[in-house]
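pinning this so it doesn't scroll away 📌
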Amino acid sequence: MSKFGRRPHAPASKLKPLDNSTIKDRSIRASRLVREVQAKARERFVGSEETVLVTEQGRSMKGRDIYYNQIALKNNAALGSFVSAKITGSSAGCLIGYATSVSD
């Protein structure tokens, strides 16, 4: 989410400028709404089994499903492998689950 910036020759550049506090307030409200919508959209995956490509190793293993959702895995899996993962939770930022089997 980014704040509006004037662009020369764009129709909106002729509008009266808003004060910074209004811009900041609108940006905060819009960002909250985006996070709420993302969290609600990801809730539908809870309880499902997804194929995940394991792409990162950190505090937890992370990967992506076919919809490019990030999935944090509670157990280990080899980087670069495809695993079946049971989705047990969600947030605005990612899905949470555990690897149930390695796909060939």
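📌 and the second one:
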Amino acid sequence: MREKEEVLEEVSRNFWKAYFQEDKDISKPEVIREVLEKTFSKEEAEKYIQMSNEAEVKQKLTDVTTDLVQNKGIFGFPSYSIQKEGEKEIILFGSDRMDVLAWIIEEKYDGPVPNISKL
């Protein structure tokens, strides 16, 4: 069984790719379903889509978003909060900051579409 963090990372990456690499409208139900089905079965994907319409889930999203805006200064998508042990938290905003994020966490980054980049 996969860990929650691993699944979250995969789903997040798939939504990121759909939006930033494939220029898909991730607010459309058919795109959401398509992205979720890369990680989950059709039944599981449908369950998560239904859950996203529940009042409790919508309230949790509102609460988390409000907290991020008010307490961390997060203001848009995508925003990244990075904090290495013993260091000050860093907030980055924008898909054009991925190279900075990679540098901070000491990971290689070849750009958003490395398979077609000429760099």
